[in-house]
Amino acid sequence: MISDASPAVLAGLIGYGIQASRTPAMHEREGAEQGLRLIYRLIDLAELRLGVEALPELITAARRLGYDGLNITYPCKQAVIPLLDGLSDDARALGAVNTVVLRDGKAVGHNTDWYGYAENFRRGLPDVARHRVVQFGAGGAGSAVAHALLTLGVGELSIVDVDAGRAGALAESLCGHFGAGRAVVAGDVAKAVAAADGIVNTTPLGMAKSPGMPLPADLLRLALWVSDIVYFPLETELLRTARAAGCRTLDGGGMAVFQAVGAFRHFTGLEPDAERMRRHFDSMG
């Protein structure tokens, strides 16, 4: 039962094209279940007609307005880092932040994306081959997912990105952490996909604001598993096409839930009920 005397938490999400996000409802419902007056607001760059250059102003405003925490999504997960007072070990290792805790005048960045992806993968594709995997995207989310994939035992991760320099920097960082040869930049995408057990999309392609697929449909084949981290819509063009080709698929819903589980823990200091949050997420479909 929530009353005026209940503890209050103010949180928000900064990103582009996030009106369909289920994150606010997940946090607010779980807060209510735990007796918190948790208010979660969307700070949508698309709706505000702002670019990433507005991020310093938005972070300053959140500090002044008494926010307890922020989630950070595309395209701000790396741009936010210079604006923070500190980073967790995970965020520093990944070079990306999706959760900012505002407490005692300090803004500290964390990364719950990699845990969210890993937990979703363990549950959704526990028994698939993972000798070679191709990942599309080397941005903030891509960094977290790559870390998760190599932690999960992927032998060689081939990275594809429109910015070859960014893909190279991520591959180098991953090899430094996991060992030489564990991550490479994919030169020939068709050849890399042909040799792969699975592919993962970490780009915005497939989102309502960014329709499309990261690879040609004719590269999909029955033996591939296909994972997408986009969750609005839950069924992206990539997943729909992959299922039609007979591929096993994994949508981004579980990652969205489990990264929120980690963020809720940071924002509130309370232990969330992950299964309850998953049920609530599914009920919004």
UniProtKB/TrEMBL annotation:
Its EC number is 1.1.1.25. This is Shikimate dehydrogenase (NADP(+)). The gene is aroE. Signal peptide: none annotated. Homodimer. Involved in the biosynthesis of the chorismate, which leads to the biosynthesis of aromatic amino acids. Catalyzes the reversible NADPH linked reduction of 3-dehydroshikimate (DHSA) to yield shikimate (SA). Shikimate binds at S21, R22, T23, T73, N98, D113, Y231, Q259. It comes from Roseomonas acroporae. Transmembrane segments: none annotated. It catalyses: shikimate + NADP(+) = 3-dehydroshikimate + NADPH + H(+). Keywords: Amino-acid biosynthesis, Aromatic amino acid biosynthesis, NADP, Oxidoreductase.
